[in-house]
């Protein structure tokens, strides 16, 4: 199964055989986005056009296969930036048509869950997934990653990664902000400043997130304390995000009776989030599965992993009218 990902700023082409990873080639337009401090959709779309064929060739070389050896093509149909998605969908349809292979248009969020099969083996019959990235922060109940994915909650404003990116900018740490804050926080005191934990009151939605108040709190705090050590602010901010992300995900496992939690998305690469979630899962008797960082950030292998699972479970391929859907709902793992 060859998988193509182009929903945001990474052009990914992955090749898998069942749950075995053969190649995961990624080209990123982040270097072109840095001077804007965020992802400019039009730049991302054009970068996908430039990177698609070379990335495809690189994946085939790494896997030691030719395109004719591929049995099926999977592609992210949504959600994501529409102009970016269109490039991947057009590439996948062209390949599938030219090679006369089945085409599977899949959901990006489900793919973030399915990718863990490449590292930790088959998914259990039921689990909870916490997905946190620059574009999404959601808690999902996953009974069947190809057909039964139910949203339990999501962010009502900024995504977690977006908060990392915005706070890093306030701290002069550059873009993308997550890795920069993670690094800066190592020398800081996470208890130095108590930043707010959004939506954790008794009447708040138990599995929804809000990061915009936290972002404003950091901004106000910096205005009042202009000479504060950057490391302490980074560590305290990171602690607030990791605390609320992990506590709600563990609570969702308890509430649904699931004993496996899967983390995914770029923010799952965060060292404090990984450590704190592990600690809380251990205390609650929950098995935590976190793919390695390269599989957490956007990549083509995750799309191929979900495509392979579609075939394994006998799901029918998508039709030739498959299009990009920027707001594809999470309950739709496969686009007909
Ligand atoms: O999943 P991803 O590659 O793309 C999106 O779908 O958005 O996630 C990118 C996001 C960025 O906001 C980036 O700052 C964040 O993930 N990120 C991190 C870390 N590495 C990447 N956030 C916190 N800690 C990290 N180590
Ligand atoms: Zn993603």
Detail the topology: elements first, then pairings.
Blueprint: E1 2-5, E2 10-17, E3 20-28, H1 30-33, H2 41-63, E4 73-78, H3 82-99, E5 103-107, H4 108-114, H5 116-120, E6 127-132, E7 137-144, E8 148-154, H6 160-170, H7 177-185, H8 212-224, H9 230-256, E9 260-264, H10 271-284, E10 287-289, H11 293-296, H12 300-312, E11 334-335
Parallel strand pairs: 1-4, 4-5, 6-9, 9-10
Antiparallel strand pairs: 1-2, 2-3, 5-11, 6-7, 7-8
Helix pairs in contact: 2-3, 4-12, 6-7, 6-8, 6-9, 7-9, 9-10
Bound molecules: 5'-O-[(R)-(carboxyoxy)(hydroxy)phosphoryl]adenosine and zinc ion (ZN).
Folded structure, characterized:
The chain is of the alpha/beta class and 336 residues long. The chain folds into two domains: 150 residues, ATPase, nucleotide binding domain (Nucleotidyltransferase, domain 5), CATH 3.30.420.40; 169 residues, 2-Layer Sandwich (Nucleotidyltransferase, domain 5). Helix content is 44%, strand content 19%. The protein contains twelve helices and eleven strands. The strands form two sheets. A six-stranded mixed beta sheet has the order 3-2-1-4-5-11, with helices on both faces. A five-stranded mixed beta sheet has the order 8-7-6-9-10, with helices on both faces. Helix 6 runs parallel beside helix 8 and helix 9 runs parallel beside helix 10. The longest helix has 27 residues. The two termini are 18 Å apart. The site of zinc ion has 5 residues, from helix 4.
